[in-house]
Design goal:
Elements: E1 3-7, H1 17-27, E2 33-40, H2 44-51, E3 58-63, H3 72-82, E4 88-92, H4 95-108, E5 112-121, E6 124-129, E7 134-139, E8 146-150, E9 166-168, E10 199-203, H5 214-223, E11 226-229, H6 231-235, E12 256-260, H7 266-269, E13 277-282, H8 289-292, E14 295-298, H9 301-316
Helix pairs in contact: 3-4, 5-9
Length: 317
Amino acid sequence: MTRVLVVAEHDGRRLDPATAKCVRCALDLAPQALAVAVLARGGDEIAAQAAALAGVTGVLLVDAAHNAAPLAAVLAPQLASLAEGFTHVLAPSSTFGKDVAPRVAALLGVGQISDVLAVLGPHRFKRHIYAGNAVVTVDADPARCTVATVRLASYSGVGAGPPAPIVRRTLEVALPTHTRFVALRSDKGSRPDLQTAGRVVAGGRALGSAQGFELIGALADALGAAVGASRAAVDSGFVANDLQVGQTGKIIAPELYVAVGISGAIQHVTGIKDARTIVAINKDPEAPIFELADIGLVADLFKAVPELIEALRARVR
């Protein structure tokens, strides 16, 4: 009997779309039970959102003060306790999921399967290796709980379904005392979330400085897009690393991806190969990004981007 527990990602108020994508992956396992674990403080609304996802048969709500912040060291012991009786535990392959899932796997004494892109059977999965240049089939031990993260770019979210029952759980588990929440800092403001945005504008080292990178923000605002960056731009200190797109950053699949001043290294391409339409702006006609781009513009970005922004704003006016 296949019983799947999906770990809900949320910001304390709203369920992240990544959770609906994990549920889609879980449905491919043809589970007899599909529960969503919501660990929060004051999580009634989040639990209700999870219960409304199509295919979910129940929600396990652990509402406690120590769950106010998404600390993996605090959440993992609780999730390991909730996993009792489940054959699978799935978490999104986001920053949150990559943080908490390995801890859950370690507490359960199993290895973790990362970035599942397809389900071939109850314990057989496909995932990328070699920076996305090859796909490998992985088998998990059917006698033990399978812990895996779901590659979000490979799945669309489920829609709404009949509300599932919500069960409140109180867990008696030992929580760590060496980890505490200090503060949360975010630079994304009112722009869409990079991981789930339908449009993304990303900049590379060619922008030259943090001040030059402001062009990317202006173009993103004109398009109603999220902002991303190459690893080179992040390493150069232009933007924070939570905007990095690529193998060691975020794997995304927007409808539109605009790469400005990005050469197109393999590490970066791994993160954008599932984008529907890729537009590249680069003054080097030999840049590898043009091999992947659907639309390419060979031009000086400091001239082309302001012109593009003005044209977009003129259409709005």
